[in-house]
Amino acid sequence: xxxxxxxxxxxxxxxxxxxxxxxxxxxxxxxxxxxxxxxxxxxxxxxxxxxxxxxxxxxxxxxxxxxxxxxxxxxxxxxxxxxxxxxxxxxxxxxxxxxxxxxxxxxxxxxxxxxxxxxxxxxxxxxxxxxxxxxxxxxxxxxxxxxxxxxxxxxxxxxxxxxxxxxxxxxxxxxxxxxxxxxxxxxxxxx
Length: 191
Fold this sequence. Notes:
Largest sheet: none
Distance between the termini: 21 Å
Structural class: mainly alpha
Number of helices: 6
Number of strands: 0
Shape: elongated
Oligomer: single chain
Strand content: under 5%
Order of helices and strands: HHHHHH
Radius of gyration: 18 Å
């Protein structure tokens, strides 16, 4: 690894928040008044919502995996941390995570209503949201994290081998080049 960058390039892949994107989907859905057409529209909404969910899960997983890569560097100065010396506001920091958790329930209910089938999310994917919440809390919103040795890892991330870290680093670089954050979900078993 070259530099201890706070963001390896993930943020440029997300132009807006998960909540904003989902609200746009529901605005389109709610424009349709005829129930039969609304059911058809929900099928499109379902596919887009499911894809967005995976992209943002990939982002959160990627942040934790990147944290493990940074931690493996020893005690290097972290460059580009936009949160340094700010006040940690837990509620603000976890707003999107909480929105995603609520989304799973709402999307499941709507999926049953419009399509007659549930929106099922793999437990490993849901675990990402809980672990990311712990990751943010454990690091105090990153307001005091200026060196790699201060990063607190969660779950099984402390148990990664040197080869695991190398594989993760290579996958992160691949994902940044491909713009497919959801591809990081293959590393769910590492957390």
